[in-house]
Each structure stands twice: as structure tokens, then as C-alpha cells.
Amino acid sequence: MNGPRAKQRRELLRQMIRIRRFEERCVELYSAAAIRGFMHLCIGEEAVAAGIMHAAGPDDPVVSTYREHGHALARGIPMEAVLAEMYGRTNGCSRGRGGSMHLFDAGHRFYGGNAIVAGGLPVAVGLALADRMSGRPRATVCLFGDGAVAEGEFHECLNLAALWRLPVLFCCENNLYAMGTAIERAQAETDLATRAASYGLSSWAVDGMDAVAVSEAAERALRSIRGGSGPCFLELRTYRFRAHSMYDPERYRDKSEVQEWKRRDPIERMSTLMRDEGELGDREIATIESEVDKEIRNAIAAAEAGPLEPVEDLTRFVYSERS
Amino acid sequence: MTKTTYREALREGLREALKEDDRVFMMGEDVGRYGGCFGVSLGLLEEFGPDRIRDTPLSESAFVGAGIGAALGGLRPIVEIMTVNFSLLALDQIMNNAATLLHMSGGALNVPLVIRMTTGAGRQLAAQHSHSLEGWYAHIPGLKVITPSTLEDARGMLLTALRDPDPVLLFEHGSLYNVSEELADDAGAVDIERAAVRRSGKDLTITAYGGTLRTALAAADDLAAQGIDAEVIDLRVLRPLDEAAILASVTRTHRLVIVDEGWRSGSLSAEIAARVAEKALYELDAPIERVCTAEVPIPYAKQLEEAAIPRPADIVAAAKRAVG
């Protein structure tokens, strides 16, 4: 019951619950106008965030997208810094200059938070190039959605990373929709792992609703990358249970489809499995929920208490400040 | 002093940068085996090896963005884009990442990247290789935009740009590569903050930069022969603009002709004119004159191309209108 496998499962489950509850609270805070701007939730996709970040090393750079709350939390950026950012406060991880879509944390090597679809891929390639040229045994983890596969930058970057055998783990969160456009309406070939493989890199599809499968696939890919085999591509087949953003009336998909996917809820699935195998009881679940609740309450308090950037500082950080 | 060319001066700047800092490397299309589209990097592959002189696929967005990532990762990349028209394929990375990351990250992530590219008309390369879009880039907060017009600046601006913590775009006018002049043997790093007075004069101020500086100086010679003493300011840096130098000159001469190879509408020339109007209107004894590129895509035919871009005669005529 306390072997490494059980420990790993418990950590993945805890992380997924943490992300789910955080996102749910964000909806309330958004409705209460404490959070503004565009906000994209990852409810339903928690297994990807938890699994990938569980596998990544602390020195591996991470490049993400605008749907990155879960990635940031699982990466270890303190929840209060993430939430304060969405409140626009100076104790936010980007000092309130970025908001929900632009979480950055140099200390955690978290390079955004990129709100241009596929715009983070070239940056990830460059981070990997710097590590390669500097002889550092790191791998850059680059997360993006299926929508990015339609962008030219995706193809340029897979080619370049494969050509130069750069240490990049490309993680495509295929949630089947680019905002409101279903994948079969946007991609002539919907098997993304197959398409990625055409660039001459290792590529495979993973059940993105299974955190253990995600974590194990990422570990395997990272081992291969660190061994010098060049980049890998993971197609993580997942689904977002909620709308694209807070403005989305969801006219483009059937409720029955959402219900169907909810039967594969990654949190339910993991907790059922763990219960069945005697690794988890009600008491442990209650403990996780209570710890998460406390963490969220503390984060809200910290965000609410966070100072606002003085308007006099508006033009700071356009150019570096020299000491 | 040694006789050399603008191209060789650029190459010497690159060589010195690569020698003095192991973090510096260069990448772009055909920078290695080919020696650079315009021959600037000829020989550098042999000297510094393929790790530091990297040929890239034709993927402007990927390799410019990779330059941004490599800069975040602690290196000092020099990215070459063949011409400013091709830079539009990388505009997302330049505008949405290089220029914004420092601000969006609340000051946590700076991007010490230098992007070099060719700009400008005059070589019959038609409308997809000849435009002057540096003024567009000068519109963007977060970028620095520099335009070496002399051999000294070609040799020295890159070194200073590489020491800058933020992204710098360096524009090389295509008509300058073969210019041959004397260059001091100890030429080295130069500032990338100030404009320079390239010719002192008392009757009017002409501002120019990059490829138009030589045109402006030729016009000033013609004007001198006609008894008009023009001061020629080389802007050198388009962003941040050395406004003080422009205002100081106009305060001395009271007349202003702005030369800009960009199109007039919404151009850098418009910005300079607006600032002088805002801050030195009552110093002016005549309306501001502008000499810009005609509002057409640059044509191929020689006589049409020449008519499209600022010529010495256009500047002389504008100066005479200003002097009255």
C-alpha cells in the first residue's frame, strides 16, 4: 500500500484534485469579478498536467499555453502566486502584468503562458538549443493544444528540433477542439502522432485521461531525450469538460459528447482504481480535499491582500532596468 | 587606418563578438556554407565551426523564436534574416515574444537577442526584397532598433547590441555592403543610444539614417555649392529615438528636412515631424519638409525604382523650399 507505485498514484491524484478544485474556485472568482480578462480552464485535462509535471525534472524548462493554470500548479509555482497573478497583484508570479494567460516563473523555469497558438514552440526549441550548446543534460517540456498543429510554427519547430536532435518533449494536449472547431473540421489527418512521426522523431499517442499512463509515457520519452535520441512527441488524448473560455456558449458540441467523456473523468478513474486496489480510503480523500481547500483559501487571502502595482510604475519592464 | 568595406566591417564585428564571448553564436539561412546571402559571414563557419555558425532551414519563425529561447537559456544569439520582407514570417516571434516577455513576466525574463537583417531598395530586387520596414519595428515598445550607416557603426554597433539585456534589431541597408572607406585599426564598440551630427551646418537640419545618410550627405554637398549650409543628422538609433539631438539641431538651424526610405504615411518621418511640432514648433522658420519613398511597392525597373526612393535632387529641392 505504500510502495512507490501507490505513492506515485497518490501524488498524481492529489495534484489532479488540487487543480480541479482550484479551477472550480476560479469560476466562482471570475463570476464575482475578482478575476477578469480571458480565462481558460483545464477541468477534465488534469491528468496531463499532473502526469507530465510529475515526470519532468526540476531543471527542465517548461513552455506552456494560455490554458496553463494546471501546468503551473503541478510544476510547483505556489498557488497564491498563480491566483494573485489572476487578481492582477504584484505578488502574482508575473507581477500582475500577465494575468491568467501569462503565468511566468523564472525560478521554476516556467516560460509562460503563451497566448499565441503555437507561439511557444520556437521558444522551447531555443531553450533546448541553449541547453544542448551549454552541455546541460536537460529536456525542455513544451505543451500545446491540437489547434497548434494547424499552425506553420508547429511544423517548422518539429522539423528544426528533429533536424538538430534537440532535447525537446513536445506534448500535444489533444482535447479535440481548437476553441470551437472540431479537429475533423480543421485537420485533414486527425492522427496527430502519425503526422508528428513524419518529421523523424519518436512519437506516440497516450490516453490523456490516465495520469499514470501520461506520467510513464513522459518518463520514457524524457529518458530517450536525455539519452541523446532527439525530440519526442506525445499526443495526449484528452477532453475539456468546460467551455473554451468564460465567454464560450458551447454551441459547437453536443452535451451528450461531454457526458460521454465525463465518464472517463481522470480523477474518478484514478480514485476508483486506487480504492479497488486498496490504496485509498475515504479518510485519505477527505484529507486531500481538506488540505486543498485550505491551500485555496490561503491563496485567495494572499491574492486579495496583494498590493496593486502603482500606476507610476506603468512603464517599467519594457526595457531591463540597469543597476 | 585601413581601407575596407561595410560588409567586411560587419564581418569583423561578428568575428570579434564570437571571439570575445563563448555564449555568442549565429544562425540563419545560408549563413554558414554559403557565407551569408550577402557574403557578410563568409569564412566564419571555417573559423568558428558549425555549432556556432548554424545554417537553418527556411523557417523564419522557428529560428527567430529559437533565438529568443536560446537567449532565455543564457546564450547570446545573433539571428540573421535575409531581408526585412522575410522578417514578416517571424513577426509573431519578434512582436509577441521578444518585445513582450520582459513586461509580461513582470521583469523576470529578459531576452538578450540580436536580429540582423538587410533592408532597403536600390538593387532592382522588386517589391518582396526592397522595403524599408525598420520604421514599423521602431513602433514597438520593448525593441531597440539600430541602423548602422558608417563603417565605424557597422563594425561597432553589433558588439554593443550583444551586451544589451534586451532584443536589438540591426538593419543593414543593402546598398551599403560594397561601400569602401577607411576604417580606424582600433575601431570597436560604439554607443547605440545617440544620433550623430555627420555634417555641421547652420541653415537647415536634414535627418537621415542607414541607407539614406549617404544620399543626404550628397544633397548637402550640392546645397553647399549653392551657398546653403546644411547640417546632417544620422539618427543611428530609431528606437529609442534621440529626440534631444534632433531638437537641438532644429533649435540651431530653424529648418528641418526629414529623409526616410519608408513610406510617408504613418512613418518614422511622421513621428519625427510630430515630435518637432510638439516640442520645437516655435523654433521653426519654415514648414517641415519630408522626403520619403513614393507610396508604391518598390518596382523592378531601374528608372521606376530610382524615382520611388529618396534621391539627392529630391532632398535639395525640399531644402530649397525650406530655406525659401
TrEMBL record, chain A:
Keywords associated with the record: Oxidoreductase, Pyruvate
EC code: 1.2.4.1
Enzyme class, first EC level, given as a word: oxidoreductase
Origin superkingdom: Bacteria
Name under which the protein is recorded: Pyruvate dehydrogenase (Acetyl-transferring) E1 component subunit alpha
Source organism: Amycolatopsis coloradensis
Automatic annotation (TrEMBL), chain B:
Enzyme Commission (EC) number: 1.2.4.-
The entry's keywords: Oxidoreductase
Domain of life: Bacteria
Name under which the protein is recorded: Alpha-ketoacid dehydrogenase subunit beta
Lineage, opening ranks: Bacteria, Bacillati, Actinomycetota, Actinomycetes, Pseudonocardiales
